[in-house]
Amino acid sequence: MKIDIIGDIHGCFQEFKELTQKLGYSWESNFPIHPEKRILGFIGDITDRGTDSIKMIEQTWALWKNHGAYYVPGNHCNKLYRYFLGRNVQIKHGLETTVAELEKLSDKKFNHIKRVFMELYDNSPLYHILDDGQLIMAHAGIREDYIGKQNKSVKSFVLYGDVTGETLPDGRPVRRDWAKHYKGKAFIIYGHTPVKQPRKIGNTINIDTGAVFGGYLTALRYPEMELVSVSSSLPYIEGKFTIFP
Ligand SMILES: [Mn+2]
């Protein structure tokens, strides 16, 4: 398989369009289509914080539904799904921007966006095992002993990472560096924790380069293992990037 997997987009439609163009996709049909039938992969957190979450829902759903794109949910996707279910979720940490976009829609358009997002979410696995088990897409990564399993712990890990339950002084959750200890054969591609440059360690790569915080939007071309990035149009926010020792 030939797939281009994109890191956390967070409503950055403009960067998504630029990145797919740089990857050789054509936008003639208003959706990125590759002339050699490469496909796109979405690593989760397609919405929240950026200005175009609705557009990213439409793009991701249509590419998944009609063109074989792969998607796994992130924690922000999970929260939006629970919002659509009518659960009592807190409209903050980025969800407020998506809700503000939704509130401007007509009832008809709102119901359409709700329906397609829920369809996408309901039909997507917590993580994808691709290429005969050689490649795994998981939003926040996955531990080797969780691969192939589906339970509450696995769900929490792939959505939030290896969190300790503690928080840093700035409110961000404390996360263990699972990638450093990963010894599995499958190559794990993930995002969730913004880093200044893609972080490749062992058989893992984090491609969340903080597009919504003024970094880059990054894709990994598989199986070529080439990284392709575009600069964010947004102001750079230093404190949002994790620096690993
Ligand atoms: Mn995330």
UniProtKB/TrEMBL annotation:
Family matches, as CDD domains: MPP_Prp_like
Organism expressing this protein natively: Lederbergia galactosidilytica
Boundaries of every Calcineurin-like phosphoesterase domain copy: 1-195
UniProt KW keywords: Hydrolase
Protein name in the entry: Bis(5'-nucleosyl)-tetraphosphatase
Source species, domain of life: Bacteria
This protein's record includes keyword Metal-binding: no
UniProt cross-references to NCBIfam families, sorted A to Z: PRK13625.1
GO CC terms: cytoplasm
Molecular-function GO terms, alphabetical: bis(5'-nucleosyl)-tetraphosphatase (asymmetrical) activity; phosphatase activity
InterPro entries found in the cross-reference section: Ap4A_hydrolase, Calcineurin-like_PHP, Metallo-depent_PP-like, MPP_PrpE-like, Ser/Thr-sp_prot-phosphatase
Enzyme class (EC, first level): hydrolase
UniProt-listed PANTHER family: BIS(5'-NUCLEOSYL)-TETRAPHOSPHATASE PRPE [ASYMMETRICAL], METALLOPHOSPHOESTERASE
Alphabetical list of Pfam families matching this protein: Metallophos
E.C. no: 3.6.1.17
